[in-house]
Amino acid sequence: MTEKTFIAGFGGQGVISLGQLWVYSAMKEGLKVTFFPFYGAEKRGGIARASVIVSNDEITSPLVTSADSVVVMNQDSVEIGEKVCKEGGTIFVNSSLVKKDPARPDANIVHVPCNDIALKLGDVRIANMVMMGALSKVTGAVKLDNLETVLKSFFPASKHSLIALNIAAVEEGKKAV
Amino acid sequence: MAEEIRLMKGNEAIGEAAVRAGCRAYFGYPITPQNELTAYMAKHMLAKGRTFIQAESEVAAINMVYGAASTGARAMTSSSSPGVSLKQEGISYLCGADLPAVIVNVARSGPGLGGISPSQGDYFQATRGGGHGDYYTIVLAPKGVQDAADLTYEAFSISEKWRVPVLILADGLIGQMMEGVVLPEPIDPATLPRKPWAVGHAVEMGRPYNHVTSMNLVPDELEAANHARYARYERIKKDINRYEEIDVEDADVVFVAYGTSARVSHGALQMARAKGMKVGLFRPISLWPFPYARLHELAEKGKRFLCVEMSMGQMIEDVRLAVNGKAPVYFYGRCGGNIPSQEEVFAEVARLMGK
Fold first, then answer.
1. Which of B109, B116, B178, B338 to mutate to test the interface with A (most CBs of A within 10 A)?
2. Domain A2-175 has what CATH class?
3. Is the ipTM value over 0.85, yes or no?
4. Which chain B residues touch A41 with a CB distance below 8 Å?
5. Residue among A8, A5, A49 at smallest CA distance from A23
6. CB-CB contact of B226 with B110 (8 Å)
């Protein structure tokens, strides 16, 4: 199993955290992982991108140029996302913000209203965790079934109060697809 | 007991490996894309009561390395391409004074100020001395985070063994990406043996005072010192000759690529093999000394070579020297901070093989 995922969104939407947590969880599940972030010189804003690969085998090129799955967190990222998706791949769309689907009739488009779900849970900043739940459920590449332990080692102790909310977001994301 | 796997950025893994190798003093000056390395050293060297100095410039940092190294301490600096250019004078002095040191270049695109994206355009500078005078540094090129940690850790002892600086030539991708890494055993710098050639501790060690310098105004003496150093280089060439091979034996075309390009070429190799094309990969790990002999052997077996680099073509000159006209050598490169995709490298090898 090798799952190559390309994630894109507006700076501040948690694209980098999503990618990091995805590979961190995968590593804890015994997989080989690579995470490569890509962002401009902007201090904030702009499009943040991440190439993430999880695999049972040694990972060759760390760049995701033909993605099995693509995550698009905002409308501006659709154009990049639809280009990098492989033939017949899956594109996860944050349907709260993306109103025009990627122009890829061959791809499996999965709509996840991440911001709406996150707002219902009480914090829009966990929209990325909602998306991670959806990504896990549909691809099956990373199970995220031991999330509490993983989050405890990922977050510093000062952030541990937010773990329950993050887990809830992931669970809601899984349920949404 | 096997240590846990940690998820780390390449820059941080290099820093932690250096700390564990017993690096006693680090001197740096910020530059993207290696800033996490300097930041990591600031935090962890100071926490361990070792020396960390953010110097006023790259030139200052490399000269601080000279000072620390001449006392026999394990010393290190890191930077990225334009900053490493600034350090060349100091590296030449280190080599002239036969001082060990570890220098990390997390390379970015050039020439000039260039860009902040990954590049392999510093190969010539790294493998041909880079500064003035007759000298080489040992150059090791990691292909990922684990490798970057392992090679950095080892670089300190290699450098001390030969009294030659070791340059770790990485790039912005290796510095910025995160992968799982198992870190090597920590060494306490206090347990490392004192160097008989270092300054200081003369009375304690019961030996005459040492004078560490690269200067010698007597031509015959300087010539003799250079000859002695080159005799040492010949021994290094026999001792260090590192490479990795994948599917080379039955290959018609062999990619030659190091670092990030080797990872991308490995991906292209898998695409080619899936289509039944006999493609292999030769990855030099030591760029100086370059593994000429093995490549020559492969050329004599009738292989063709496709060099893949993130440059306009630099390592290809070593490949041509190794092959010495015995086999065709082709080139595919991207530069300016672009990283080739495995799809475009595959397309190039397919074109070469007429597929």
1. B178
2. alpha beta
3. yes
4. 116
5. A5
6. no
